[in-house]
Amino acid sequence: MRVVAAGERALLDLSFVRRGGRTVIDRRLFAWPFVLTRSFHVDRDRPDRLTVIVQTGSGAVHGEDNLAQRLTLGPGTAVCLASQGATSVHRAEPATRARESVRLHVENGASLEYLPEPRILFPDAALSQTIELDCAIDAYALIFDAFTMHDPIGIGRHFRELESTFCLRRSCSEPLLIERTRLYRPERSIFRGYGAFGSAFMVLPPGHDLAEIQKKLATALEGIRGLYGAASASPAQAGLGIRLAALELRCIRQAFEGIKAIYRETLPRPLTNFS
């Protein structure tokens, strides 16, 4: 696979605008391993929302992959971006690791749901990922991230390294939030019996009752067996951050569905016109 040099165009580069009361793609650039087919308007509650499903030709992340994504949402757009299924992250040679960078720019009045399927970390996998979100003050965003572990021969081997960074800005300001996670050759004991982990960041304009949304999230998460979850307000009251640990990946998926439903309740009614 070709490595992306610094400053080179993202391997997946999408831009969205609002036309005729709906969101459409106006820039559509992608290269191996990304595959993009048709997009859909399928949500009855938000008919202007465009659902995009990103696929990968390789079906996995390999040891020296260097993947980049850039999404730009114009004013008043609504986008839900998902992937076709869980992505395997395979073994990396010593002193190498796969890298993935995602840049998300959400302009005024727009709404983004960035909902990739979880990563499956195989033994000796090494992955460094960065998500940078620049969200206008009056825009909305929901970001999911999750992983689980799998040893094909079932002897409890783990991945080598996982480094994850999430950075939130509002209208190109200084970062409001930088959250970093790094695990290197983890021992089984640190997972305390849990086999899948996830996080969600719900970014909302000022004026929302974050305490009430937090209560709704707590109620939804408490009803899922095999799941431990907690939600807290983000700095500057920019929204909420949610952390999840589960016995099985299906519990994480169930939690994400509940979080998405609560997020969608916060959204304003779709605009009929936008200029």
UniProtKB/TrEMBL annotation:
Its main location: cytoplasm. InterPro entries: UreD. GO terms for molecular function: nickel cation binding. One of its GO terms (cellular component) is cytoplasm. It is found in: Cytoplasm. Coiled coil: none annotated. Keywords: Chaperone, Cytoplasm, Nickel insertion. Belongs to the UreD family. UreD, UreF and UreG form a complex that acts as a GTP-hydrolysis-dependent molecular chaperone, activating the urease apoprotein by helping to assemble the nickel containing metallocenter of UreC. The UreE protein probably delivers the nickel. Required for maturation of urease via the functional incorporation of the urease nickel metallocenter. PANTHER family: UREASE ACCESSORY PROTEIN D. This is Urease accessory protein UreD. It comes from Bradyrhizobium rifense. The gene is ureD.
